[in-house]
Amino acid sequence: MKIMRIIVAVVLTAALLYVARNTSRGRPEFVTHTENGYTFEMMTVPKGLEHGMETIRLKITGEMEPGVKPTFRQSKFGQDETTPLHKYGAVPLLVEDSATGEYFTEFSTLARGDRFYYYCEIRDATGGLRASFTSDDGKPFVFKFIGEVPTYIIGPHIFFMFVTVFCVVMAFLYSFKLLSGDTDAHPLAFYIFLSVVATFLGGYPWGFAMNYYAFGTIWEGVPFGTDATDNKTQLLFVYLLFLTLATVGSLRKGPPGRHLYSPKALGRFGVGAFGLMVAIYVIPHSIQFSVGLTKTVCYSFIGLVALLYLAGLLSRLKSRGQQSRPVRRAKS
What we know:
Elements: H1 2-22, E1 30-35, E2 38-43, E3 47-49, E4 53-61, E5 69-74, E6 89-92, E7 94-97, E8 102-108, E9 115-123, E10 129-133, E11 141-146, H2 151-179, H3 186-203, H4 205-215, H5 228-246, H6 263-282, H7 291-324
Parallel strand pairs: 3-11
Antiparallel strand pairs: 1-2, 2-4, 4-8, 5-6, 5-9, 7-8, 9-10, 9-11
Helix pairs in contact: 1-2, 2-3, 2-4, 2-6, 3-4, 3-5, 5-6, 5-7
């Protein structure tokens, strides 16, 4: 039975990591758009190494009569995705193959952590707009400048990420024993403890190093920032730390230890750990939410977990106090 759990855990771990990798917003995507008889096709280039050269290529099909100019529009210093698009700088797209409508633009990359926004458009000889090419929501595309992360940094980070997912899945599978009436929470406590250690090491020491080499920053989780990736790591760590403290009495083998909650409640929390992790990995990597939404979700979640721990702690202290009261004998 234990071997079967391990096999299931490995399969689920691989599946979750595969989903996370393929839903990342930092990966190139094929995008296309048709407007007024012109069709744009492009494989996005979302990022490039700092202090180098990058090329963005696209294909434009449609009638290109004399005077019609495909143009690359790029944000200037101090501008971002909220800047009206017509204020972006403009440079003509270079022709790579006029027969097939292949165009490109080249640019030098800046220091890691910087970014710019861009889109393409077609204008006629009088300056009239024929068609524009943005993302599906009408916002410009984004290009990020990143640094190269050394293997000795990214290797342990990926390893600890794998260990975290595997241990949470194992705890999830053992949670069903508690839900079915078993009182031995040692397997759950053991795997949750390993997962919180792996989350801390992979998300903080190695996460700090990853951020520094890739983006020139250290940590952008609340309250220091609103980066979605850092905050997802932080929320998972907070929950796993709570569950570790709630099951600390069963970390060593032996008779069931004292817990803040009943075995069935711990089983539910174990299932909750898996559900939270799935939600975190399903949310695309590198996606960004608004500052207000990010802070509201993060602080509310951390506050809720803190209240859960305090409620369990107070309940246990109250129960211990009642057990320690002397029993009054009735007068004869």
